[in-house]
Amino acid sequence: MELLGIAVVCEGTSQAVSEAEPLRQKRPGAKRSGMEISMAKFTFRGGVHPYDGKELSKNKPMKAVLPKGDLVYPLSQHIGAPAQPIVKKGDPVLAGQKIAEANGFVSAPVYATVSGTVKAIEPRRVVTGDMVMSIVVENDLLYEEVAYPTPKPLEKMSREEILTAVREAGIVGMGGAGFPTHVKLSVKEPEKISYVIANCAECEPYLTSDYRRMIEEPEKLVGGLKVILQLFPNARGVLAVEDNKPDCIRTLNRLVQDEERISVASLKTKYPQGSERQLIYAVTGRAIHSAMLPADVGCIVDNVDTVVAVNQAVREGKPLMNRIVTVTGEAVKEPQNFIVRIGTNYHELIEEAGGFLVEPEKIVSGGPMMGFALFDLDVPTTKTASALLCLTKDEVSALEPSACINCGRCAQVCPGRVIPKLLAEYAEHHDLEQFVAHDGMECCECGCCSYICPAKRPLTQAIKSARKIVLAERKKK
Amino acid sequence: MSELKKVSSNPHVRDRDTTARIMLTVVAALLPATFFGIFHFGLRAVFVVLISVAAAVLTELLFELLCKKKVTVRDFSAVVTGLLLGLNLPVSVPLWLPAIGSVFAILVVKMLFGGLGKNFMNPALAGRCFLLISFPALMTNFTYDAYAGATPLAQLKAGEAVNVMDMILGRTAGTIGETSMIAIVAGACILILTGIIDLKIPGSYLVSFTAFVALFAALSGRTVDGAYLSAQLAGGGLMLGAFFMATDYVTRPITVKGQYVFGIFLGFLTALFRIFGASAEGVSYAIILGNLLVPLIEKYTMPKCFGKGGERS
Fold it and tell me: Are both A284 and A295 inside the same structural domain?
C-alpha cells in the first residue's frame, strides 16, 4: 500500500504523448487503456526455454553486504576508453569519492565505495579472465562517505543538467553490456524518440536481482524512468516485464495507473526476451540489425538497475556505487540477492551466502546462458555483474560434441534469424568472407544455438570467436 | 585457491535432447509400419528387417574400428538406415539382399563421405535404388501368400481397378513397410508431436504431388477422379517417403523456404516418374534426385536475418 503513496509524489510536468504510436498489439482486441495492457503477449521469433532456477533466490529480499577486504575497481567496467585514475598510491579515499575520471565521451568515471587508502594501481584479473588496470583500495572498515550536494528538483533541471548528472555518476548499462548510459541518452534528435523501454525482462535463468528490485523498490524504477522521459518529450515509457513475474506486473501497473506516459508490457517468457533487439521488436514491432542503434528506430532501452541508478544520480546526486547481485546455484548454501558495493571480492559474496553446500564444479559470473565461467573466485564485482552462479555440475564438459545432423534447431531458435550451423562451419574453416556474407556479425551471442543443439556442438563459441577475429581485422584497417 | 574451476564459453547449460534420442524416436515412429508389415507378410519379414538393421550397424562399426575412428553406432543412425531399407524391400527377397543393400548404404553412401551428417543422399534410399538397379527381378517380385501380387500402383498403371480401402489399411502387395498408409501416418504423428519433423516438406510434397499427378494423368488421357488420386496417394512408397525419407535432416534443405521448394520439387518428380516412367513407382528416385539439388536450393533460399526483413519469418 505504501507503494501507492509514493507513486503520487513524483512529477507534475507530464507532456502530451499524442505523437507516440500505440504499443504493438499481438492479439486483436487487446486494449491499451493506460492501465492494463498485460493481456497482449509481446514476443519475437525464436528463443528457448531453459530451466529457470529462479525459485532458489526469488523470495530472498535484497540484503546489503559490507565488504571487509580490499576493494578492486577495474578502470574498464564499460564499453569505451578506460577511465583515468585521479588518485595515487597512498591517497586516502571516502566512499562516494571519484577515483577515476572518464577518458573521453564514450567512457565512465569510477567511484570508491568504501573509505580507506589507495593500496595500488595495478592490473587485476576480472570476470572475463583478462587482466585489467585497477585501483585497489584498502578498506578501513569505517565506511565513511562523502557529503553529496543536494541536486536541483527534477522539474527545474535542463536536459544538459540531467545528462551531466548521469555521466558524472558513472552509470553504464548494468544488464551486462556496460555501454555508458549518458552516451545512449545523448541522442541527436531527442524529440524523435518515441519509446523509452525499461528492460525488466530478466530472461536469464537463475537471475532474480531485477525481480527483487521491482518487488521491493518499484518506485525507484518508475522514478528513474520519469527522469529519462523528461529528456524525450515525445516518448512513452514502457516497463517491459516477462509474464513469469505476474506480481511485478501487478505492482508496476498499480504504480503507473495514473501516469499518462508510462505503461507496463507483459512479455512472453522466453529466453532471450531481454535481448535489446528482440525486446524492441516485441514491444514496438520495429527491428534493428547490428549496424543500427535503438535510437535509429526511436527507442531507448535501459535495464532495471540502470534506470534505478539514473534515479539515484539525478534525484539524490549520488554516483553509482552498488548494484544487486544474485548469488545462487545449487552449490550455494543460502542463495541470496545482495546489494553489493562495486569492487567487492566474489569470495566475500560466497561467504555472505553461507559458503558452499558442495564444492561447485563451475562458477559463472552472470547467468547460465551468457555469463562468464570463472576459473577462480578472486575477482571483483563490477558495474555489470548481475549474478554469481555456482553450479554443482558442469553440463558442458560432461557432454561430447558429435557430428551435426543438420536438424535445423539452431536456426529455429536463433533470435537473429541466421543459420548458426552454417556460420559455425564457416568459422571452423576460417572462411570469414562467407561468415560475414551469411550475416555472422548479426549474432548476439545469446547461446540459444549451443543450448538447443542435440549434437552438443559448441556453435556459439565458434561464432563468437569468428566475430572477434572479424572485429579485430576491421579495427586494424 | 589451489584448484581451478572448469571454464568454457557460454552457454553453460544444454537442452536434454540428443542425436541418439532423436534417432530412437524415429525408430519408434517406424514401429507401427514395421509391425504391420510383419503381421501382413509373415515371419519372414522379421528376418529381412533384422538382417538389414544388423548389417547396417555392423558395417558402420567395422568401418570405424578398421579406420580407427570414433565408434558412433550408439547414435542409432545406422539402425534408422537399416530399418528404413528393410521396410523398403519386398518380403520375398533372398536374405543376403538386405545385407548387401545395407553395406552399400552405410559404407558407400554414408561412411565414405564422412559419416553421419556428411552423406549427400539418403543412405537407405540410395541402398534401395542400388538394389533396384542391380537386382531388378528380385526387387520387384511382390509375391506373397503364394499368389503373385501386382502392387496396386502397377494395377493402376495398367488401368485396372484397385481397392482404395485395402490400400489405406495396407492389405496389398508391396514392400514390407510401405503398404499401410494408416500405420505410416500413425508413426508420422509421433514425429510431428515430438517436434522431430514438421509438415513443411511432407505437406508441400503431398499437395504438389496430387496437383502434378492429376495434371500429368489428365495429359496422358486418363480420367482423373477422387478414387484415382486417393489410390495414387495411398499407393507405393509415397507416404513412407514423404514422412520418413524426404524429411531426413541431413539430406533436406535447412532453410524454411528451401523446404517448400524441395517438397514441391519431389511432388513434381514423383508424379512425372509415376505417370511417364517405365515403372509405376517413383518416390525413391525422386527423393535421391531431390537430395542432389539441396545445396542449390539452399543457396537460393537463404533467409534474411533479424533487422533486415527476417524478423517476421
Answer: yes
> Using the beta-carbon criterion (under 8 Å), do A439 and B7 form an inter-chain contact?
no
**CATH code of residue B272:** 1.10.3430
Would you say residue B135 lies in a domain? yes
A125 within 8 A of A379, measured Cβ to Cβ: yes
**Record: contact A417-B310, CB cut-off 8 A:** yes
- Domain limits at A461? 409-476
Contacts of A363 in chain B (CB under 8 A): 5
> Are residues A83 and A219 both part of a single domain?
no
Domain count, chain A: 4
pLDDT band at residue B68 under the 50/70/90 scheme: very high
Q: Which residue of A has its CA nearest to B22?
A: A454
Tally the domains of chain B.
Answer: 1
Q: Is the pLDDT score of A9 beyond 70?
A: no
Q: Quick check: is B4 in a domain?
A: no
What's the complex ipTM?
0.92
Cα distance between residue A370 and residue A388, in whole Å:
12
pLDDT, tens only, B113-152: 999 999 999 999 999 999 999 999 999 888 776 556 788 8
Nearest chain B residue to A390, by CA: B5
Our CA angle for B180, B183, B184, nearest 5°, is 85
Q: Testing the interface with A: which of B306, B312, B313 to mutate, by most A Cβ within 10 A?
A: B306
